[in-house]
Design brief:
heterodimer, A: alpha+beta, about 40% helix
């Protein structure tokens, strides 16, 4: 029964498939999008119940001339009802908590790298107002990130000055870039394409322009790219 | 603007009124001042919001000068002013006016301290506004994250204005909270047990405790930041310090602050919904218990603002769970409000409309709150316009609608007039529609990758339509305020005074005159149930009174609070510019006012008289 009531919502939201974050291009991003959809579905149940009760009560019990002398029954409360709307939200939240915990445990940024030899490691340095990406052969480029598809990309993030935040909406969520502390964030299995990267933490006058281009390419192209000298690729 | 005020003051010979309000320690007058100045700052911050929305209306916009530094200053001012100098003081104003009347007290426990609290807020607000005219408004966001806010990265005095003005007004807020706690615990009418207190008073009591803890933490944070900025310490940067310390301190204050704004509004809505449904609040004990629980839990969730800081998976998951837990007591309140309406007779007056508008809007903000607590999903939401949408949904739906509901509801107690209902409804509907039109599209902007605090976006990011809608909505809200002004103007011009009880109220505040006189509750009311006035009216009796005697505060005019805080304001101004010699002199001045106060009791001449009045 409940499934039927949320159906219109899902149809409504199906129109939003083109929304960037809900249509991610990496498995990290897909897990996050799944969580967003799942929590939205559970919360839609709550919204719907409140909206229906609210509309019904407002219409049914509104003041009319007939009721001008009417004194409503003096009700103090109802333990059964109140327990219902304490326990059911509890259950809904418990259901929501399970995938939240699992995915959060996998994805939370860490302070130490795991021994993940398969992955590609890239050092990311943020400063006002520029991103620097250093690949494994010390190839260093600014404001352009090129990574291979279908790999675990491990980012080692650090900042030279204030706090920035590393965000590629199409691929995965944010992670802060903090001075004097290296954070590790892993993005898994990106798909080929061109995406926008941004700084998401307010960092000063040019914060809005602290963006970078992301290209996900095939492994061969990535290896080729590494061999090109950095000067050719990008002048400061 | 200032000129017009000066001219009209002189023309209508209002100087004596201003002099009276500068010296007053009466709770209604101080409450009025709180609301008045809170509202002025609300307008200023609202105009900032319109600047922000004008700049973001279309992609690659160059609206006037509001890009780069100016834009950063504008959003910093908007956030800081709205939270510290608009929402909080307007709520404190409503508490000041209504709480003593609701519990049958003559005034707050410490009238002098109450005046000091107000003037501290006033001084802080003025100091913050002066920064704008000196072209050194802070540009660090209302959260003032280190190390950007330290002297390494913001060299000018802008951030110092932020530190000092928040410090001063925060101190005032702490004083007022202390005052409210003592008043509610000590000054209730005979027979008004805790279990018979109106819910607005309950909410005020819990809020006051939250203020006491949260604003103290803020004061500590600001103090450390001041040392970092002015005296070369390194708490928030360098190898020994850590910028994340600031975030912990700020959010241990900042999260309870959200509930400091929401709980009093919950209280106002409870009273209004009950009054205009002709029913007592459904499940009173559960309502009180959930306020207490929300207050308690609000101190255990601050890390949900820091999921992306890298505190580790364990911390992230623990705080995800505690954050979800807060939804349960909030949900209890929502359903209890709904069931208060069930079976009642709903009168759609303006205060009731604001309260009804609150329920669905707030629930929409609440569910996105639960979505944000899903920590891995929060990596996507964090610092995007989705978050901007969420907290505006929660804060505007609870605090701002609550303040408007409270102003319309208590307007007779403040001035003796009832605001015009028809204009009130225009105000409500335009505001509500504008509000949803502004902030609903922001959810989608955020999910389309729009970070907060950016002054521009490009064509082709899928952000054009949603941003344009938001801007239209913001101006609709702006227009709704014009109806409110016209309402004030029209009501006062018409000048029809109303009696004690224009709304058919239920609690003690509706038994006293409108506007509430300085000498109330003689003889003392004797309270035997919740909503005593309502049941007395049903039984066609007068409310019971008692000859019992009770110590009551005496409010006497004094200019000292004003002088004290203004001197403190000038001292802070000198500190900001590092003029230490005048700062020391002014500091000594503040201290000497303390000494004068210690040896001078303005109530002395009044002792003895009061007793004879009562008997």
């Amino acid at each position: 029964m409940k499934k039927i009531t949320i159906l219109p919502f899902i149809i409504l939201l199906a129109g939003c498939q083109s929304i960037t974050v809900l249509d991610p291009k990496s498995s990290t991003g897909k897990e996050q999008a799944y969580l967003i959809w799942f929590s939205l579905a559970i919360m839609a149940i709550v919204l719907l119940v409140v909206f229906i009760l609210f509309t019904r009560f407002v219409i049914r019990y509104r003041y009319t001339e007939k009721k001008s002398e009417f004194i409503p029954q003096d009700i103090k409360g109802n333990l059964k009802y109140e327990l219902t709307w304490t326990i059911i939200p509890f259950i809904l939240l418990a259901v929501l908590a399970v995938p939240t915990l699992k995915i959060t445990f996998d994805q939370s940024p860490k302070t130490e790298a795991e021994t993940n030899t398969n992955g590609i490691h890239i050092n990311v340095t943020a400063e006002q107002f520029r991103w620097t990406f250093e690949h494994k052969n010390s190839k260093t480029v600014h404001n352009e990130l090129i990574i291979p598809e279908n790999k675990d990309i491990t980012f080692h993030l650090s900042s030279k000055d204030v706090i920035h935040s590393f965000w590629i909406p199409e691929l995965a969520g944010k992670v802060d870039v903090i001075p004097n502390k290296e954070l590790i964030y892993v993005i898994k299995n990106a798909e080929i394409g061109e995406y926008d990267g941004k700084c998401a933490e307010f960092c000063g006058i040019q914060h809005a322009n602290m963006t970078f281009d992301v290209k996900v390419v095939s492994m061969e192209k990535y290896n080729q790219y590494l061999k090109q000298s950095s000067n050719q690729e990008n002048e400061d | 603007m200032g000129g017009i005020v000066v001219i009209s003051v002189l023309k209508y010979k209002k100087l004596p009124v201003i002099w009276e309000f500068m010296r007053t320690t009466n709770h209604r007058k101080i409450g009025t001042l709180y609301i008045l100045f809170g509202f002025i700052f609300f307008l200023r911050a609202g105009i900032d919001a319109l600047f922000i929305r004008s700049q973001l209306a279309v992609p690659n916009n160059d609206f006037w000068v509001f890009q780069f530094e100016k834009y950063n200053e504008v959003f910093t001012t908007h956030g800081t002013m709205m939270i510290f100098f608009a929402a909080t003081p307007m709520l404190l104003g409503l508490m000041n006016i209504a709480v003593p009347l609701q519990i049958g007290a003559r005034d707050l426990a410490f009238p002098f301290l109450n005046a000091v609290g107000f003037w501290l807020f006033f001084t802080g607000g003025m100091l913050f506004n002066i920064a704008f005219f000196l072209n050194s408004a802070p540009a660090i966001g209302w959260t003032g994250y280190a190390p950007l806010s330290t002297s390494l990265f913001t060299l000018g005095v802008g951030s110092d204005f932020y530190v000092f003005s928040l410090q001063i007004s925060g101190l005032g807020t702490i004083f007022t909270a202390l005052n409210l706690i003592v008043t509610i615990v000590r000054m209730r009418a005979p027979g008004m047990k805790f279990t018979r207190m109106p819910l607005f008073t309950w909410a005020t009591l819990i809020t006051a405790f939250l203020i006491l803890v949260a604003f103290t933490v803020l004061a500590i944070g600001l103090y450390l930041l001041m040392f970092d900025r002015m005296f070369g310490t390194k708490f928030f940067h360098g190898p020994d310090g850590d910028p994340v310390y600031w975030q912990h301190l700020f959010w241990i204050f900042g999260h309870p602050e959200v509930y400091i704004l929401a709980l009093p509004a919950f209280g106002i809505f409870s009273d209004i919904i009950s009054t205009f449904s002709k029913k007592r609040v459904f499940g009173y004990p559960a309502m009180v218990l959930s306020i207490v629980l929300i207050g308690f839990l609000s101190f255990m969730v601050w890390v949900h603002h820091m999921f992306t800081v890298g505190l580790g998976p364990v911390t992230n998951t623990i705080f995800a769970i505690t954050t979800m837990a807060i939804a349960v007591p909030t949900g209890i309140k929502v359903f209890n409000w709904l069931f208060t309406m069930r079976g009642g007779v709903l009168r759609f007056t303006t205060p009731m409309l604001f309260s009804l508008g609150f329920i669905p809007s707030f629930v929409m903000g609440g569910v996105t709150g639960v979505m944000l607590s899903v920590s891995a999903a929060d990596f996507q939401f964090h610092d995007s316009h989705f978050v901007v949408a969420h907290f505006h949904y929660v804060i505007i739906a609870s605090t701002i609608l609550g303040i408007f509901a409270g102003i319309y509801y208590y307007y007779p107690k403040i001035t003796g007039f009832v605001l015009d209902e028809k204009l009130g409804k225009w105000h409500f509907w335009l505001f509500l529609i504008g509000f949803h039109l502004t902030f609903f599209p922001m959810h989608i902007s955020g999910l389309n990758g729009m970070p907060r605090r950016v002054y521009t976006f490009r064509v082709g990011e899928g952000l054009e339509i949603t941003n344009l809608l938001s801007t239209i909505g913001a101006f609709t809200m702006g227009i709704s305020m014009l109806f409110f002004f016209y309402n004030l103007f029209k009501t006062h011009k018409k000048g029809e005074k109303v009696g004690n009880d224009p709304w058919d109220g239920r609690t003690l505040e509706w038994t006293v005159g409108s506007p509430s006189p300085e000498h109330t509750f003689t003889p003392m009311p004797f309270v035997e149930e919740t909503d005593p006035f309502w049941y007395a009216k049903l039984r066609r009796e007068r409310i019971k009174t008692t000859k019992e005697h009770r110590a009551s505060p005496i409010s006497r005019d004094s200019i000292l609070p004003f002088l004290m805080t203004i001197t403190l304001g000038f001292m802070s101004f000198c500190m900001i510019y590092k003029w230490y010699v005048p700062a020391i002199i002014l500091g000594a001045g503040v201290f000497s006012f303390f000494v004068i106060r210690a040896f001078h009791d303005e109530r002395a001449e009044h002792y003895g008289k009061e007793q004879t009045d009562d008997e």
